[in-house]
Amino acid sequence: MVTPGMFTTALRAPKLGSAEAECEDAHLVLPAEAPDTWRTEPVLVAVADGASESLLSGPWAALLTTGLLAHVAADPRALDAPEAFADALARAGLAWRPWLADYVARREAAGRPIAWYEQPGLDRGPHATALAARFAPDADGRTTWAAAALGDSCLFHTRGADLLHAFPLADAGAFDSSPGLVNALTTDTALLARHTRTASGAAEQGDQFFLCTDALAAWFLREAERGGAPWDLLAEHTRGGDPERFAAWLEAARAAGEVRNDDVTLVHVDLG
User: Residue ranges of the PPM-type phosphatase domain (predicted)?
Assistant: First the structure.
């Protein structure tokens, strides 16, 4: 019997016209993703999509993924209930003020102090969506999973030709221009909990999970609703290990109006 486990792979691409460094999405996989490494221990994944209309949302998304997974690694129950995940989100926000102070100091040292028109954005704080998940193989040959999300970054669980679970959105029409967002300055855990969703389940060897930020997630659900199997196409790209090929496909899909022009992040958890 094959020891239950998984491979993890991540791909990302900035919106058209932006450099890689300008991508406001962030993701983190623990242990670090290595496409050729079969993981038999629990794997943690976090994805965050920084809101373009808020200042410094990219760095906040990166801090958010790091803070969330540190909390989930210490206490997996953080994914079990909205209140627990809200507490993890608020704790992640504690890293923002020290990061911002260092950023301001670096700007001043470089002779580029914060301009008057930037200050209101800094005072409001950056925003991002958040999705975190844990995948844990067990002795019975299955993998249990748990996830929590605030906003419209999504997790999809597939088996063969079937989409088994779409979380937290299950309808392509549910995506809009005002998803739930985590403000780096928010300490109101009750407010965060009201906008948090949680889910859990069990998977078999051979199942697939895809964690996507909103533009790719909306495309995924539209294709599935048309009777397609978008997971097969995405798996070709992640297993092929060719980011340039993925970027070329994405560029064509954007040009055809199939994928909205936005930053894109994909993490594939492949159960073999």
Answer: 22-250
Domains and CATH numbers, the chain: 7-270 (3.60.40.10)
| Euclidean distance between CA atoms 156 and 36, whole angstroms | 22
- Measured CA to CA, the distance from residue 205 to residue 152 in angstroms comes to 27
Distance CA 134, CA 118 (A): 37
Can you name the residues that pair with 163 across neighbouring β-strands? 158
Q: How many angstroms separate the CA atoms of 215 and 6, rounded?
A: 26
HEC string of 166-200? Answer: EECCCCHHHCCCCCCCEECCCCCHHHHHHCCEEEE
What are the helix (H) ranges across the chain?
57-74, 82-92, 96-109, 119-124, 189-194, 214-225, 230-240, 243-255
151-167 tens-digit pLDDT = 999 999 999 999 999 99
- Among 76, 94, 33, 92, CA closest to 198: 76
- Whether pTM exceeds 0.90: yes
Query: Which residues have C-beta within 8 Å of that of residue 37, sequence separation ≥ 6?
Result: 7, 31
The conformation of residue 259, written as its DSSP 8-state character, comes to S
